[in-house]
């Protein structure tokens, strides 16, 4: 480690960790093996960083929440194995609400992105430059979020979605879809993403049939869900989509068509 670093003696640093100059690592921090932490990084108390994580200059991990309800409770910010935080990414730790902010494994969080308190980001997620996630947002596995997007607090972004850059998101986005336009709307299926992740033709057909009824039948959500239950045989894929829709707290995005 460089003598210009400030690493608290109580911080737990794994094996083969590279730390650049002018980086500050506080107490109550755990960093796994084989991490690369660049210069001018700040890692505050409550950070739990997995193996093989790369953190680029100017990033701040486990800063206290920007939430007036926060009272200094001991909470965490967790970064999963193999994830990359690019320049000036900020990840706040949790509040009493959830107790932690979590970014999963093998994610790419691009420059100037903010992940607020109590967010839960799944595995394999790509968040492009300057995206801002408000508090308690959920982003499921393998979602791709375009640059400059703003996501309202408590929103839920489903698995394998593709969100256009510059999006203003104030509704939940169901899994496997593309979302674009203003206001943010369903514009089709993320078939490219599904093929890249090895979805079978059978699974893609089920997804297509579900969303044909949900978004292209002129039925309201309640009636569309009822018709999907009646017309499409039960399967893990069908039920995953329906459970997302039924349990949506903010309501799902509408169709652009």
Note the main attributes of this structure.
9-stranded parallel β-sheet, 4 helices, alpha/beta, elongated, 257 residues
How would you characterize the overall build of this protein?
The protein has helices at residues 191-196, 201-216, 221-231, 236-246, and strands at 6-7, 12-13, 18-19, 24-25, 30-31, 36-37, 42-43, 47-49, 54-55, 60-63, 76-79, 84-85, 90-92, 100-103, 108-109, 114-115, 120-121, 126-127, 132-133, 138-139, 144-145, 150-151, 156-157, 162-163, 168-169, 177-180, 185-189, 254-255. With 257 residues, it is α/β, with parallel strands linked by helices. The strands form three sheets. An eleven-stranded mixed sheet has the order 3-6-9-12-15-18-21-24-26-27-28. Strand 26 and strand 27 (185-189) form a beta hairpin. The longest helix is centred in the C-terminal third of the chain and has 16 residues, at 201-216. It is elongated and about 65 Å long. The protein starts with 5 loop residues before the first strand and ends with a strand. 41% of the residues are buried. The mean pLDDT is 97.
Compact summary:
This protein has four helices and 28 strands.
Q: Are there runs of 5+ residues with pLDDT below 50, and where?
A: none
Count of separate DSSP helical elements? 4
Average pLDDT, all residues: 97
The rounded distance between the terminal residues' Cα atoms is 57 Å
With strands numbered from the N-terminus, the spatial order across the biggest sheet is 3-6-9-12-15-18-21-24-26-27-28
Described by the principal axes of the CA atoms, the overall outline is: elongated
Give the proportion of residues in helices.
10-25%
Structural category:
alpha/beta
Number of strands: 28
How large a portion of the residues is in β-strands, by DSSP E?
A: 25-35%
């Amino acid at each position: 480690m460089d003598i210009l670093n400030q690493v608290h003696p109580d911080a737990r640093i794994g094996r083969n960790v590279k730390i650049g100059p002018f980086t500050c690592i506080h107490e109550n921090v755990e960093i796994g093996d084989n991490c690369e932490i660049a210069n001018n990084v700040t890692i505050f108390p409550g950070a739990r960083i997995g193996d093989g994580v790369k953190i680029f200059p100017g990033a701040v991990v486990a800063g206290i929440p920007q939430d007036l309800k926060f009272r200094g409770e001991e909470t965490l910010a967790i970064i999963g194995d193999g994830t990359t935080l690019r320049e000036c990414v900020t990840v706040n730790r949790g509040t009493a609400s959830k107790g932690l902010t979590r970014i999963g494994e093998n994610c790419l969080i691009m420059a100037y992105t903010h992940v607020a308190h109590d967010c839960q980001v799944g595995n394999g997620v790509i968040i492009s430059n300057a995206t801002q996630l408000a508090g308690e947002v959920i982003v499921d596995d393998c979602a791709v979020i375009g640059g400059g997007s703003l996501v309202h607090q408590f929103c839920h972004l489903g698995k394998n979605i593709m969100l256009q850059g510059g999006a203003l998101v104030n509704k939940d986005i169901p899994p496997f879809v593309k979302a674009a336009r203003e206001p943010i709307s369903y514009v089709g299926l993320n078939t490219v993403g599904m093929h890249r992740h090895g979805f079978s033709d059978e699974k893609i057909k089920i997804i297509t049939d579900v969303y044909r009824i949900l978004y292209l039948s002129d039925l309201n959500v309640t009636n569309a869900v009822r018709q999907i239950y009646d017309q499409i045989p039960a399967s893990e894929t069908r039920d995953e989509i329906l459970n997302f829709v039924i349990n949506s707290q903010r309501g799902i995005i509408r169709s652009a068509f």
